[in-house]
Structures are given as C-alpha cells and as structure tokens.
C-alpha cells in the first residue's frame, strides 16, 4: 500500500483499519474544501451577474480571493475561476474586434445599411432608424432613438439583432396621424390651463404627461389604475412626431403643431429637452410645444 510520509514514519507498518481511517480523514478534508469552493461560486451562478461584464469581472476577482488553498481534489477551484474570467475577457474581445464586422454583415443580409458614427468610448453605429451604442467595458449595447435608450442587450451580434427588432416593435404602436394631432392639441390646451401659461409655448416636460393621458386605452380612462396604464416615453413622442412628418400631417384643422428649438443653456439641460431626429439621426433638441394657425 502506498502511504505518504505524513501518514506514517519510515519503516512503520500501518494496520489496514488505520490506513482506512487516514484515507477517510483525507476525503473529509477534501469534501470540506469543496464545500467552501461551492460557496465561493454561489454569487457567480446567476445569469444577471453576466449582463454587465465590468461588474462580472469585479465579482470574479472577489471570488478568486476566497478560493480555498491547498485543494487537492480533481475539481480545482482556481481553474474554475480562470475559466469564468477567460469567458468574460473573450466577450470583451468580441465587442472590440469582431462584433462590428459581424453586426454589419448581419444587417447587410437583411438589406439594411450600418453606418459607424463613433469608434471610441463607447462605439456608436446607426442602422436606420435606430442608433446602437456599444459599451465594450460593460459588454452591453443600447438600442436608442432620439438619444433615449429603448432597451439594453448583451453586446453580442444575435442579441443586438433581436433587440433591434424588439425596439422597433415597441415604437411601432398603432398610429392615426389625425388622432395623434388632436391628442397633442388637447394636451397642449390642458397644459396651458394647468400651468397658467401666458404665452402659446409650453415646455415639453410639462406637456408630455398630459399627452400620455390622452394616449391611454379606454380601460385606463374608465378606471385609472396603474396596471392598466401604458407608458408613453420621450422616445415614443419623438417617434410619433416623426411619423406625423412622414404623413405630412403637422397641420390639421388649420392648426400647425410646432416644436421650439432649445438654445443656450436650455439645450444643455437634457431633462428639459428632447432630441427630435429623422431616420438617419439628423435633428436638434427641442424645448417647447405650441400651435399656430395656418390656412389650408
């Protein structure tokens, strides 16, 4: 029988039962160490951890400092941590080196063009009508319209393609240009009355909640509860205005819907303004909403 130097003194004969006890102790020690390693891996076994690569790498480094030392089992804790770290570093590498080409090819296969707007910190590309902003450090991509994030997905080609489709689905709600124009006009009137506005212009941030109410379904209007309320976002408003322009319906019943340009310090206060853009991303920040009379 093989015996380690720590088990017996040189030349000593160990009875079989004592040898079994020694092996049993070694297995119990190994089981204890494996239990510690399983606990160390606990914070790393949830999908949400890997949504943000930067935070995931921090979690991996914290776990690596807790790996039990002297682990002799075939299941090596350090190797597991190294494998997780390598996976995350490869995701960062993909975002840096391969994602742009793969994404461009995938959109091209759909008959869509992708244009690079910014190559550094973070990368930004545009496939009309959306912008895609890729954060390589976090391993995330944001699908945007009007400089507003519609949703975030992992910075991976398939996830971005699926996110692109989902973002367009979110924006493309049923739309009647004349009804939308009427809703805007009613919201503008309500906002002016509520704020005591002395001029025709009201700020978009004051106007938007009133428009959101008009865009609700009958179920909410009959019984206004949170569960039946449908979000109406800044990006959705910008998208609906774009749809109104496409339909050449800015004028309805001799009333023109106007958006006042944000200038000076107001343009720097992003919470007060919305960036109204076309499919290619050309546009400007607007601060106010107002209506004017226009002959047919």
What does this entry look like structurally?
The chain has 296 residues and is of the alpha+beta class. The protein contains nine helices and ten strands. Strands 1-2-3-4-5 form a five-stranded antiparallel sheet. Strands 6, 7, 8, 9 and 10 form a five-stranded antiparallel sheet that branches. A hairpin with a 2-residue loop joins strand 7 (251-252) and strand 8 (255-261). Helix 2 (53-64) packs antiparallel against helix 3. The longest helix has 33 residues, at 77-109. It is elongated and about 110 Å long. The termini are far apart. Residues 1-8 have low confidence and may be disordered.
Main attributes of the structure:
five-stranded antiparallel β-sheet; 47% helix; 18% strand
Low-confidence blocks of residues = 1-8
Query: Which percent range fits the helix content?
Result: 40-55%
Shape: elongated
Please state the CA-atom Rg, rounded to the nearest Å: 30 Å
What average pLDDT do the residues reach? 88
Biggest sheet record: 5 strands, antiparallel
As a percent range, the share of strand residues is: 15-25%
Secondary-structure map:
Blueprint: H1 16-41, H2 53-64, H3 77-109, E1 115-118, E2 123-127, E3 130-135, E4 140-145, E5 148-154, H4 157-171, H5 177-195, E6 202-203, H6 204-214, H7 218-222, H8 234-246, E7 251-252, E8 255-261, H9 265-268, E9 274-277, E10 283-293
Antiparallel strand pairs: 1-2, 2-3, 3-4, 4-5, 6-10, 7-8, 8-10, 9-10
Helix pairs in contact: 2-3, 3-4, 5-6
